[in-house]
Amino acid sequence: MRTRLASALLLAALLTAWEAWCRSGAVSPLVLPAPSAVAATLWGEVASGRLWPHLRVTVTEMVLGLLAGTALGLGAGILLSEWPALHRVLRPYVLASQLVPKLALGPLLILWFGFGLTPTVVITALICFFPLFENTLTGLGQVEPGQRELFRMLGAGRTRTLLRLKLPTALPVILAGFRVAIVLALVGAVVGEFVGGRQGLGASIIAAQSVMDSSLIVALFVVITALGMAVYEAARGLEALILRRYARG
Amino acid sequence: MPIDAHLALDGVRYRFPGDPAETVAGVDWAIPRGAIHCLLGRSGCGKTTLLKLAAGLLAPDAGTVRIDGTPVSGPRLSVGFVFQAPTLLAWLSALDNVLLPVSLKRRPQPSDREAARDLLASMGLGDLTERRPAALSGGQQSRVAMARALLTEPSLLLLDEPFAALDALTREELQDDLLRLCASRGTAALFVTHDIAEAVYLGDRVGVMAAGRLVHEGAIPLPRPRPPGIRYEAAFGAVCRSLRAIMDGAPSNGPSPAIGRAA
Hints:
Chain A is an all-alpha fold. Chain A is built from ten helices and no strands. Chain B is α/β, with parallel strands linked by helices and about 260 residues long. Chain B has a six-stranded mixed beta sheet, with helices on both faces. Chain B has a four-stranded antiparallel beta sheet with strand order 2-1-4-5, covered by helices on one side. The interface of A and B includes residues 149, 154, 165, 168 and 246 of A. Chain A: It is a multi-pass membrane protein.
């Protein structure tokens, strides 16, 4: 409670200093808008309803990309963990695919899928893939040899061992990867829109930049940050719920 | 080899891939139904490997492992295995851990739950069935592991130093639990340990293993049932001393300790 109060006081102090600095005339409002101007712009966007379609598009891209990236990362992690030979063959390719800057793929993805939702969803999915893949692979490898032997002794086949032993053991590590993926999904969706979006919060930033509306840009930052924090907290709640069932102890 | 052997090992040999020497170098052993045999040896003498061969977790390079005359080709539910560590699943309650051998095959029936509860209750864990392993003491975890191995009512129990990590008093309680449960169910047991007193207290017969071979095998000349106080009697101490002498005379796998040698 005390720390929360301290956080809030710090925010108020920073905003006050920022406002005072802008009002002193030391900096042009084109370069740095005052917090009051940002708040007014944000309220205008919300009240007029202009914000909602963009928010909806970004959230849609984020969720679709996150789901696709999570499913692929989890699936690939399980596949490569169960077949180590396949892992050795494919590992360099997986690594290379992650080292390519995903945004550099943007122009190519636009050529393939056109402008709009799809290229951004693909970029988001590619970004979300890696944390899920890595953490699934790591988590599945953490099963104790003794427990694996126990499952052999009890006559459990590969699928049973995966579902009843390996995945529950790996779950906390996989969920940690999912939390990372959520944060990256927002980055993927917004920055993906920079490259190929017509709608969405990222596309709105580019549009605001072209008319030099810096207070709208900062207002959109605020919306994006709030969205990220809300989704992150939701993920943490979901994680706590799942881990209560599968927690160690 | 007696004809009525329940578990019969016959000239069993095993070498781990890449190892220069055989870990198990030709062992014959027979356990009749309901008998408790102990296998004694220093760390690294091959006793755990022999146990895994008996369980079907490893396949021998030569020789045969038979249960009731049928060659063992892999793990089977009529054989229970208790590992060195309790190997409980952290996300399951004590009851669900005991039910694991059944729940891996099919949905547990009320009768299965009843049996698991009875087993836990018979080991004094009747009130702790819903606890997760992290909320149980080491001794309680070992009891849950033993109950899990007994749930399918195996005719043979293989135990790999299951009580080695416990304090002396808890270990003695668990030894009594084991003797009681084996006697009431007619379960045979092969119990691997490095603790001479444990082997003498539990075993009808005790074998001493060194460098992959059985260097001694003999009956324990003590009456059954054995009251816990028997550990402090002269006859018990004499049996322990003679086994210690055999172990000291056996070829060791590493440098033998210079101090603490029994006469």
